[in-house]
């Protein structure tokens, strides 16, 4: 839809900026995992590598190129970058690995950073949901989607936001790494359902009201892709969430008499 | 004992709800293509209600199965009451879907381009029957447990 997307060199720096942090994260994680004195589980290394690969696929290469003028491709990369990759990366427990491999002093600094006010607020289930789902509503229901393809720096910011909000969202509901404050299963379940509902409603909204410049047919396919693709990832997240409840409420623990839902 | 009673019923109700939602999605949307993904006449409230129920049903299905596993693990599973819960949950959701969501909120119709009345009748009567049977079972199992 935007003819000047052909000017490939302009996009290269945007792609490069987005790809570099992921490559660095992959390098650091692998380094820490292999240097770790206590054996770091292989499945986590695999999950991390998969998560990074999916992120890279969405910000650099053919899919990223195509998503500039194909809304369906954009939606697929959104599913990867904003949902599936953050989920896989969170399962790889990077903070636990970081605490294990950092010196005591640096570990304290990291834990202080995690306990800082802004981060504490950001991982509140409600705040994380608003940043994630609210952000998507802004992207697709305002002119931002069109603007993103006009200005490279907006493109970069939007993609950084999609990924970070997706990651924050995942760790606000699934406690795989240490967190500053744990919210009850009941509260998290209620917010999670509302957040997923917001995602589903947005998918149908896009189906009926395409962002400016997106052809109807593309929006319909993309809306359904977002809806059903979102479902698949929702199910994965819900499964891990319920599994954590099941584990926490096993006989002989304090939660074992708590109400589950 | 009350805890066990409530959990068996709740797990069943959530599973029944999830079951109907899953059936609706696979059979009527995906296989038969009777339901529309989005009906141009859908109201905003219909869209919101559908979104919440769709999301809730996935959660209900998975959560109820983990609750089922928890009941089995603690040897407090009560099959008859669980079935009562399933019928109640399934009936209640289908009745809500067929009356409030389809008719009041105009979410979508069961089928398009046909006389809709027989479809609506079958849909809602099945729902009411399941709901009634479920409630009777729940009341009976409550009484049995006490007596």
TrEMBL record, chain A:
Primary location? membrane
Family annotation (Pfam families): Caa3_CtaG
How this chain sits in the membrane, per its record, is: Multi-pass membrane protein
The record's subcellular location field reads: Cell membrane
Q: Has UniProt tagged this entry with the keyword Transmembrane helix?
A: yes
What UniProt keywords apply to this chain's record, in alphabetical order?
Cell membrane, Membrane, Transmembrane, Transmembrane helix
The protein, known as: Cytochrome c oxidase assembly protein
Q: Which organism is it from?
A: Metabacillus flavus
UniProtKB/TrEMBL annotation, chain B:
Keyword entries, A-Z: Membrane, Transmembrane, Transmembrane helix
Q: Which domain of life is it from?
A: Bacteria
Transmembrane parts of this sequence: 12-32, 52-71, 78-96, 116-139
User: What is the recorded name of this protein?
Assistant: DUF2243 domain-containing protein
